Amino acid sequence: MSAFGILGALTATYLIYWIVRAVYRVKFHPLSRFPGSKVAAASAAWYEWYWNFHQPGQLLFEIERQHQKYGPIIRIGPSDLHINDPEVYQDVTRVGSKFVKDAKFYNFITFPGSSIGETDPAAHRIRRQVLTPAFSPQRVQELAPFIKQQVDKLLSRFSEFAKTSTPVDVNAASKAFTMDIISKILFGQQVGCLDDPEFRNDFVRYIKEAFEMGWTATAFPELTKFMLSVPDWLSKAIFPIPIMIFKEVSSYLERQKHTTSVAEPEHMKSVVIDMLVDANSAKGHVVPTPDQLTEEIIMLLSAGNDTTSDALIIGIWQICRHPEVVRRLEDELNMAFPNVRNTDAITYENVRSLPYLNAVIKEILRISNPLPGRLPRLVPQEGYNLYGQHVPAGTALNFSAHLLNRHPSVWTNPKDFDPNRWLGSDTAFLDKYLATFQNGTRQCLGKQYVSDFSIRSAAWLTSPVD
Ligand code: HEM
């Protein structure tokens, strides 16, 4: 048989296999009784490709439409269900739940073994213990003066633009602001995005590109495996951020060798790197290799930059659209801080009890959903009972904060930006159902940073600039 003949036979065999498998998945698979798209049931890859590439970023909204049509459970892949029910979400993500992160998804959008990407609960517990001191309330206090400086810098950049009536790219400015903060937390020094005339920086650009490739990674894992197997020089040319981060981490470690802790102010340190390279940080902690250390820092950089800047951008937009919110915020802040030039008086202790400011921040976090969707968790060995139906072990249950934070069983007029909802007597109930940071043991580690600094920065941002 000629080479063409062999190729033809192989292609035909694969096609037959693909069709038989698709028929099995759609008609006979244990999840076939659940409603949803037949294309998704046959092949998650092509379904995701269509709704994330061909209709860019529309998968979440298509999932929303499918829920409106079929109810709280829909099938979105051969072994994936998407659930839109806050009670099921609470149960799956509660502390002590046996659900674990789905490696099939996380291994391709994160680095396995990193704080976010680790799927083994025991290994994750150790990594979380190692990193927790870097995100403690005490650390937040130590960083406050530095963050205040960045707010001042941002305000003075805004006032420069105002003087020449030049429009500000709020998107770029927010990303620059959060990148300078997160890089300081992670490397002990900022990368200087706020100093760039147009707030540009390669870190921000490369991270954006990496996120854009993230869709491909989950939809076509085999393609991603192939791309990751190319020689180092080629993969680094395609994906340059590891080199940049590796250099930053190495330069921090080098600086540490030559600096005494007395000479180094607390906020110049990277508690993250210090803890990761210390074998005594937690029982069972194995010091990561330089590559693993770089991977952890990349994950933290993306976890801490895009999320916070997206919340900031959407927050600014929502506030600008609601003049009554601006007025009430100004009234509350003017009352609390009559001497507006004394920004030093704006401490966390002084602002955390301001009800309206806190309500605005919570509402921004509800409506912005920086991580809007689909963080799959695997059904444990014994299976799961979903509305009286048995769901087999290994099925991935997916939830989306975008939908949960708008679920009508919890939120009244969910599409409205309404800080007042956080001023009633049921705030504890709303807090419990806010899905922005995840629940349980895999809850966001940066939540304290975000809650604290967003409140302070919002207050600082309302103070005048010379
Ligand atoms: C508005 C800002 C933020 C939002 C909405 C957010 C949201 C989230 C969510 C939803 C998760 C769970 C991800 C999953 O289940 O796969 C998560 C995990 C995580 N986030 Fe955040 N995040 C924010 C800011 C930050 C910041 C500033 C940091 C600090 C660098 C950070 C560090 C982490 C880490 C380390 C994890 C993994 C926690 C674990 O699995 O133990 N996040 N975040």
Write up what this structure looks like:
The protein is mainly α and 466 residues long. The protein has two domains: 1-57, no CATH class; 79-461, Cytochrome P450 (Cytochrome p450). The chain is 58% helix and 5% strand. It contains 21 helices and seven strands. The strands form two sheets. It has a five-stranded mixed β-sheet. Strand 5 and strand 6 (389-391) form a beta hairpin. It starts with a helix and ends in a 5-residue tail after the last helix. The model has no long low-confidence stretch (mean pLDDT 86). Protoporphyrin IX containing FE is lined by residues 115-116, 128, 182, 300, 303-304, 307-308, 311, 370-371, 375, 436-438, 442, 444-446, 449-450. Keywords: Heme, Iron, Membrane, Metal-binding, Transmembrane, Transmembrane helix. GO terms for molecular function: heme binding; iron ion binding; monooxygenase activity; oxidoreductase activity, acting on paired donors, with incorporation or reduction of molecular oxygen. This is Cytochrome P450. The chain crosses the membrane at residues 6-24. InterPro entries: Cyt_P450, Cyt_P450_E_grp-I, Cyt_P450_sf, Cytochrome_P450_monoxygenase.
Please summarize what this structure is.
The chain has 466 residues and is mostly helical. It contains 21 helices and seven strands.
Entry keywords:
mainly alpha; two-stranded antiparallel ribbon; 5-stranded mixed sheet; membrane; Cytochrome p450; binds protoporphyrin IX containing FE; Cyt_P450_E_grp-I; iron ion binding
